[in-house]
Design a protein that fits this description.
InterPro entries: IF5A-like, IF5A-like_N, IF5A_C, NA-bd_OB-fold, Rib_uL2_dom2, Trans_elong_IF5A_hypusine_site, Translation_prot_SH3-like_sf. The protein is mostly beta strands. The chain is built from one helix and eleven strands, in the order E-E-E-E-E-E-E-E-E-H-E-E.
Length: 162
Amino acid sequence: MSDFDHDHDFANGEASASTTYPKQCSALRKGEFVMIRGRPCKIVDMSTSKTGKHGHAKVNMAALDIFTGKKLEDISPSTHNMDCPVVKRKEFQLLAINEDAYVSLMDLETCDTKDDLKLPEGELGDTIKAAFEKDEAGIIVVVVSAIGEEAILSWKVMSQKD
């Protein structure tokens, strides 16, 4: 058997294997996600300058880090590609909050449990904890994941089905 006789099956590659995808800077729009300084961000403001003496229009963008809320800015030629993160949102039912602030969650689609996330710090975490302790018919949290990070970014009261 030579080195070239290996039977490889590339058809079963995971479609979401990459955490980012390239997109031309001029095609980006306000409200979309983009990587700035290695962080996944949501674009909040964009402007394009005219072509200069070197022939490239520049795109100025301001964006907020989706996990920390920190404002980041970037300037890039409009013809260049920028990395855009693959951002996924998923809803879970909140089952328990441990003493060390880790939460126990249940996937609403598969009923699988997830125990590796912490309750967010600050006001968001405090309001989720207060609503859970009041037990308003169940709490749904929204978990956002991108580039291998995930966090609880919002919540709502589970709707009553009559």
